[in-house]
Amino acid sequence: MLAPAPSAAQYRGMPHVIVQNCCNDASCVPECPVDCIHPTPDEPGFATAEMLYIDPDVCIDCGACIDACPVSAITTDYELTDEMAPFEEINAAYYRAVGSAADLDHPYADPQLGRRRPASDAEPLSVAVVGAGAAGHYTVSELQHRIDVRAEIDVYERLPEPGGLVRFGVAPDHADTKKVQEQFAAARGRSGVTVHLGVSVGENVTHEELARTHHAVVYAVGALHGRPLPLPGGDLPVVAAAADFVAWYNGHPDFAGHPFDLSHERVVVLGNGNVALDVARVLTADPELFVGTDMSDEALAALRASRVREVVVLARRGADHAAFTAPELVGLARTVPVVVDAADLSDLGAEPADPQAAHYVRQKLELLRDLAAAPSPAPDARRVVLRFGTPPTAVTEATGGAVVEFDEHGTPSSLECGLVLAAIGLRGTSVPGVPFDEAGGIIPNADGRVLGSDGAPLPGVYTAGWVKRGPTGVIGTNRYDARSTVDALVADFHAGLLSAE
Ligand code: NAP
């Protein structure tokens, strides 16, 4: 683990610390009177930030950010639990890498400045928002916070329950992260919003019907499915998308009864993003950790009966390109033994030129070196093995499971297992009647305006979230993504480009 930093509290106040479940929605940023939380949404590093950070040398211990955080991810340093202790250093290290918050001159811009209230008899803006996940809810709340329109919003959700990937994608043991749903419920509950659950656009109602009856339709349908594994044997029944496994253990109705073979001692996960770490943690953690969470009874029973002892995560590139974030690696290592081979951590490429990106690489390598130096887990302990520079080449079926073939520093190698989970990224969900870019797995758009086959914007059709920009960033990243879509939509409304029956 990272060595604890000399506590800033020793020389000034009790600074605050942002911990693992930061959702990056930056609600805390405008509340801070001394501008000590970065990167802010208007700073270049925001889009690629693993989390937000408080500068301990600038924080004045006022507590305003604690109240503003929707997921309880901010605490004072004296209240840090042992488990969260590494985050004191993770916050401080960010400012050593990018410079003091006192010198980062990026005042958070109020998007409402310069706008005027509509006349009381002005036509309301009617919007259909399709998808009740993070992007859909942020679209609703961005419309509600506009003072220059009065929006009447219909939310359509295919499932009988709202929440999208916050409900069915966030790991069940990340209860604090799921608290953002309280903010979503508040947005849904405001006047002017009607929620239609269990209504599938393209099946129960068509895109044309929504487009005709609203000024605008915003598709915020997310990215539920994993990308197909482009390998020989990638479509064998023993290979499943990690995204399907996540949806199954979270009780997604589409995946109830889905078979996942947990009778073999080993599972191989391909790809090493945060989804890979989530499934590796869930497969090796004590199942009792998930009692009383969103995990389905079916998944809890299967994990209790599981014979899986080892999850091997194979990454095709070196450790300096690891796709997981440092907070999630800290969370994994806190839960189960993580095995790393020190040999995988030498002979790496040059650091990125960007200070924030370089800081993230250094921080992950430091954490991995600590793990490599830790004593081996007891022989019978469940563990996660992280391997790097091991591109998979094929999957073949074998008695009782599968063999994953991969390249290990130029030498062919293989591993037997009972289940292969492909955690190689997600794909946006297509909607009948709405353009879809099959290669990119997104709805083609420019600033959220959906583009037709001729490349021109389709009047009144918009998109937000992962199906707009691809599956990147964390929950709160979708807030600023939704804001840019709403900016385009409202501009088109004021320009007289939108009509509704
Ligand atoms: P991801 O972060 O994009 O990682 C994809 C991984 O798959 C990378 O290691 C990538 O390797 C690898 N990969 C891609 N194509 C491959 C191929 N053909 N063969 C082998 N490996 C391949 O995707 P993700 O894990 O699905 O996560 C999606 C988003 O959700 C991310 O923004 C993530 O941070 C977020 N998320 C966050 C949390 C959290 O904060 N707790 C939890 C879950 C998900 P290369 O790097 O070499 O391409």
TrEMBL record:
<dbReference type="GO" id="GO:0004324">
    <property type="term" value="F:ferredoxin-NADP+ reductase activity"/>
</dbReference>
<dbReference type="InterPro" id="IPR023753">
    <property type="entry name" value="FAD/NAD-binding_dom"/>
</dbReference>
<keyword id="KW-0521">NADP</keyword>
<feature type="domain" description="4Fe-4S ferredoxin-type">
    <location>
        <begin position="50"/>
        <end position="79"/>
    </location>
</feature>
<dbReference type="InterPro" id="IPR017896">
    <property type="entry name" value="4Fe4S_Fe-S-bd"/>
</dbReference>
<dbReference type="Pfam" id="PF07992">
    <property type="entry name" value="Pyr_redox_2"/>
</dbReference>
<dbReference type="InterPro" id="IPR017900">
    <property type="entry name" value="4Fe4S_Fe_S_CS"/>
</dbReference>
<keyword id="KW-0560">Oxidoreductase</keyword>
<keyword id="KW-0285">Flavoprotein</keyword>
<keyword id="KW-0274">FAD</keyword>
<dbReference type="InterPro" id="IPR036188">
    <property type="entry name" value="FAD/NAD-bd_sf"/>
</dbReference>
<keyword id="KW-0408">Iron</keyword>
<dbReference type="InterPro" id="IPR055275">
    <property type="entry name" value="Ferredox_Rdtase"/>
</dbReference>
<keyword id="KW-0411">Iron-sulfur</keyword>
<keyword id="KW-0479">Metal-binding</keyword>
<dbReference type="GO" id="GO:0046872">
    <property type="term" value="F:metal ion binding"/>
</dbReference>
<dbReference type="Pfam" id="PF00037">
    <property type="entry name" value="Fer4"/>
</dbReference>
<protein>
    <recommendedName>
        <fullName>ferredoxin--NADP(+) reductase</fullName>
        <ecNumber>1.18.1.2</ecNumber>
    </recommendedName>
</protein>
<feature type="domain" description="4Fe-4S ferredoxin-type">
    <location>
        <begin position="13"/>
        <end position="42"/>
    </location>
</feature>
<dbReference type="GO" id="GO:0051536">
    <property type="term" value="F:iron-sulfur cluster binding"/>
</dbReference>
